[in-house]
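quick one, 247 residues, struct below
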Amino acid sequence: MTEPTTHPVTHGDWLDLARTLPPACIDLFYTDPPFNTGQPQTGRAGAYPDAWPTTADWIAWLRERIIATLPALKPTASILLHIDWRTSHHARLLLDDLLGPDRFVNHLIWSYGLGGSSPRRFARKHDDILFYCLEPDRYYFKPPKVPATSRRMRGQLKKATDVLDIPTLNNMAAERTGYPTQKPLALLELLINACCPPGGTVLDPCCGSGTTLVAARRLARTPIGADINPDAVAISRARLDAAPPTP
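---
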């Protein structure tokens, strides 16, 4: 590791962190890696490179890190890989190859609404989250509930579908850190509540601004994270230190 530490957030590469994790210690493995957009992602609080020569190079990078992480997962663990339209089809084939097609659970759509549009195509307003398990009969899942929209069920809750309609963070959001591609706490809290048992351990080895780790701490799960960017690590540590667990 580039910086040995007892803090839940480590400064270092995902691959280095994965190689230090004890066997069968992780209940939920969520990662929101660089999407291979072809250009740097920048914000007022930091930036990171996001380009590989080819999609095959990006997949090779991802493959090596997922393989290194798998021994740390419990048999009951789940994997959530957060990507977008550029690589979701390639990544699903990768996970089918590494885990087996029968380990596929859901292709989740995070529908966020904000962003630009184009006169030449339908507006791209969602990310993809691939949900896989290790053992189909054993993985933890608690169906999340969302407000019903039908007149018949007005005021009630219903089980969420595979389309998660959660707004992205606007420029005035109180939780915004200024780090690029920050995800909303509401999204990560829904995913962690659904896919990690109470008291379990959540791993995010590309933690960015630390939203996954903060959500885990707030939900009384144990967070473990890393990022190769020192700005991301500083933001994540500060947010995590200020986030007491939910009673």
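Confidence is low (pLDDT under 50) at residues 1-5.
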